[in-house]
Design brief:
This protein is α+β, with helices and mostly antiparallel strands. It has one domain (about 5-175). Helices cover about 15% and strands about 40% of the residues. The chain contains 2 helices and 9 strands. The chain has a 9-stranded antiparallel sheet, with helices on one face.
C-alpha cells in the first residue's frame, strides 16, 4: 500500500477546472494504485464567500479491488484525497479497507456545472444567515444520489441546525429534517 502523500497534479500556474483536477488526481492515484477507480462521493469544502467561484478543496475517493484466492476473497485499498482548487495540490491518504463491507460500484464525477449549481444554491441559502468566518461543506455521498448535503459553520465551531440543508437537483434548498 502506498504511503500517504501530497502531489502537485497540474502545473501550479495552470487554472484548472474541477473536471481537469479530478482527471489529474485520478491519474495520480491510478499510478499509485493500478486499476483504482472513483467510487465514493464528491465534496467541496470552502469559505462560504468562495462558493460561487468553486475555490476551496475538492474531496474525492477511489478504490482498488484485488481478487485473492481465486476470487473467493478480495483486498480493498481506498484512497481519499483533497485537492486545493487554487494550487492543484492533492493530499491523499491510503487505507486497507478489506474488512469493511463496501458497495463497489463505480462513481461518476458530476462535473463543474452540477457542482457550481449546488455551490451557488448553498451560497444563496447561507449568505442571509450572516455567519461570521463561515466555512461550508457540500457533499454528494454517491453519484446515484441527486441531492447535495450542505453544512456550514463559523470556522473552528460545529455546524448548527440552522445550517444543515439539502440542495435538490433543481437548485431549490430544503432544511435537513429534524429527528
Amino acid at each position: 500500500m502506498p504511503a500517504d502523500r501530497s502531489a502537485q497534479v497540474v502545473p501550479a500556474a495552470t487554472h484548472a477546472t474541477l473536471v481537469e483536477l479530478h482527471e489529474a488526481a485520478s491519474r495520480y492515484v491510478a499510478s499509485q494504485l493500478p486499476g483504482a477507480y472513483l467510487w465514493g462521493g464528491v465534496a467541496l469544502r470552502a469559505r462560504c464567500d468562495d462558493l460561487p467561484n468553486l475555490r476551496g478543496q475538492l474531496g474525492l475517493g477511489w478504490i482498488q479491488v484485488h481478487s485473492l484466492f481465486f476470487g473467493i476473497d478480495r483486498q480493498l485499498v481506498t484512497a481519499n484525497g483533497w485537492i486545493d482548487t487554487d494550487t492543484a495540490q492533492l493530499d491523499v491518504t491510503y487505507a486497507d479497507s478489506s474488512r469493511g463491507s463496501w458497495i463497489l460500484d463505480r462513481a461518476s464525477f458530476p462535473g463543474d456545472e452540477q457542482i457550481r449549481s449546488a455551490a451557488k444554491a448553498a451560497y444563496d441559502y447561507i449568505t442571509p444567515l450572516g455567519i461570521p468566518d463561515c466555512v461550508a461543506h457540500i457533499s454528494r455521498p454517491r453519484s446515484d444520489y441527486q441531492q447535495w448535503m450542505v453544512t456550514c459553520r463559523p470556522e473552528g465551531q460545529p455546524a448548527t441546525r440552522a445550517c444543515r440543508f439539502r440542495v435538490e437537483p433543481d437548485g431549490t434548498t430544503s432544511p435537513e429534517p429534524t429527528e
